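re: ur msg from earlier - yeah i can do the calcium ion complex, just paste it... oh wait u already did. ok heres what im feeding in:
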Amino acid sequence: EAQKATERYVFYHPKMGQQLIERLVLEQDLHYALDNGEIYLEYQPQINLRTGSIDSVEALVRWQHPEKGLISPAAFIPIAEETGLIVPIGEWILETACRQVKQWHNEGISHIGVAVNLSTGQFFQQNLVGMVEDILARTDLPPHYLELEITESMTVDTNHMADILHDLKQLGVKIAVDDFGTGYSSMYYLKKFPIDCLKIDRSFVRNVQSDHHDDVLISMMISMAKHLELKVVAEGVEEIGQLSFLADCDIIQGYLFSRPIDPEELSANFDTIQKK
Ligand code: C2E
Ligand code: CA
Ligand code: CA
Ligand code: CA
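and the outut:
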């Protein structure tokens, strides 16, 4: 009997079993993470290159797991998507971000906007548009302060997505294409969707000083965005030397100015970051 049991598992690498178990445990824990207060947001400033001011922030979700410590969104957002937990978590993220920005407005930082990442699963959920509308109403945030980031890798039915994006635009929120240039359908997205903003992916920004190809590609993306009258954000800017290649961007986001930080830290350091 015992031998049979071993035989049955002979095709599985032990490490694979381990990974599956890890993943199942995370999945279980994620069900309770929101209610346990383990999920929170950090905010990364988006600097207006011309004025030097913090025009807006991007909300980035974090999971402080009680035993495993900090888990990156790249690790748990896919699990949230597969389990459907992205719906309650996504709603919490959106409401928390809108509430925070409204609070900054009330504290006198009255111009600041917020960018929130939307994931694929949220386009499948019941009434995404109604949810956004309700959250804007509940938090009393004027819609134009909210920008929703969508990624090119979203393999949703594009007609369905275009419909939803047009409805979201009707509410008065802005739409940004995240990780621009990395997907298969960048140009198609610009043609098909009501886009306000294009975020040049970090993979281009990273090598801009050393790789002439990236320099050329970035120039082309900026020029294209200008012709289409889109706002351009360069993300992942870490070094001052990269700025000279990004001079025609509208917004710079990256460790050069600030890492994603918690809202209290941002409030306290608002002026310091702007003076950089
Ligand atoms: P993303 O939307 O492209 O976010 C940018 C990522 O780059 C963030 O990682 C940010 O911390 C990091 N970053 C910013 N500046 C720099 C820099 O100068 N250098 C480097 N090396 N990295 C920089 P993070 O927070 O770990 O998020 C990873 C991804 O997880 C995000 O990529 C996004 O796709 C997803 N994500 C994060 N928060 C949310 C969320 O609230 N909802 C959804 N659906 N996805 C989220
Ligand atoms: Ca993003
Ligand atoms: Ca991005
Ligand atoms: Ca990304």
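cool cool. Residues 44, 59-61, 72-74, 77, 93, 117, 119, 178-179, 236-238, 254-255, 260 surround C2E (ligand 1) (CB under 6 Å). ping me if u need the other ligands too
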